[in-house]
Amino acid sequence: MISVAIPSSALINENDPKIKTFKVGLIARACAIFRVGEIIIYRDPKLNESQFIKDVLEYAETPQYLRKYIPIKETLKYAGVLPPLKIPSHKPKRLKVGEVREGVVVRVGPDGTRWVDIGVKALAPLKSKAKRGARVTVRVCSTNPLVVEEAKPEEYWGYKVRIAELKDVLSKENVVLTSRKCKVPKIEEIKSLKDVTLVFGSPEEGVFEIMRRLGIDTDARCWNTIPMQGVETVRLEEAIYATLAIVNYVRWVE
């Protein structure tokens, strides 16, 4: 699994909340395109907008027909500018027998049956221990009557989002810092890392500058994935796209 770690100061150069929302949407798109399984927002005391970023990322990842269950928040005021992800979990409302879908447990019956909204008018009965309000993944067994069962997706299904401290992120295995100060990685090195956490800096400071300010040291790998860059600075969302594209290509090339 690929994980991406970005600072809570990722939007420090933007003042307009609409543009901030759109930029988070670009990050969401990059991560979805290259099948990132987890996005970690590490706290940067210089600007802690971790909750804003988390709310927007999670909203973008949620299927459209389930977004009505997300509480109204100020952080989602401009969610309408988000580019759609169109990942496999974002199904149309028309059901197909055998397909896997996301749902939300709307209520729990007296007999323990969970009644799940899977994007159609009727609620689907489900044998599960999921709590009310929880998201569940189900397979459609029948459309008339509506019958579903718990399932695990066999394809990329989206990303999870969490907030963490940078020191905890750096303590994981197979952590890779991204910086123009580092060496260009060899193809064999990229291929060797099946599970990797790619750590990015902010628009104002690279990872090493943030670490130095926080008094953190690490012996993690470090990659320069944009050698000989033709501009003074590479924006965070651009660095994420470039790095993930290289990792994805190298993993598939013979």
From TrEMBL:
Coiled-coil ranges from the UniProt annotation: none
Pfam families in alphabetical order: Methyltrn_RNA_3
Protein name per the record: RNA-binding protein
Source species of the chain: Archaeoglobus profundus (strain DSM 5631 / JCM 9629 / NBRC 100127 / Av18)
